[in-house]
Amino acid sequence: MVKVLDLYEKFSKVPLVGKKAFSLAVGTQAPYFLTANPKVVELRPNYAEVEVPNWWGNHNHIGTVHVIALANGLEMAMGVLAEATIPSHLRWIPRGMNLDYVAMANTKMTAVAETDPADWLQPGDVNVRVKAVRTDGVSAVEGVIRLYVSEKPKK
Question: Looking at the domain that runs over 4-151, which CATH code has it been given?
Answer without folding.
Answer: 3.10.129.10
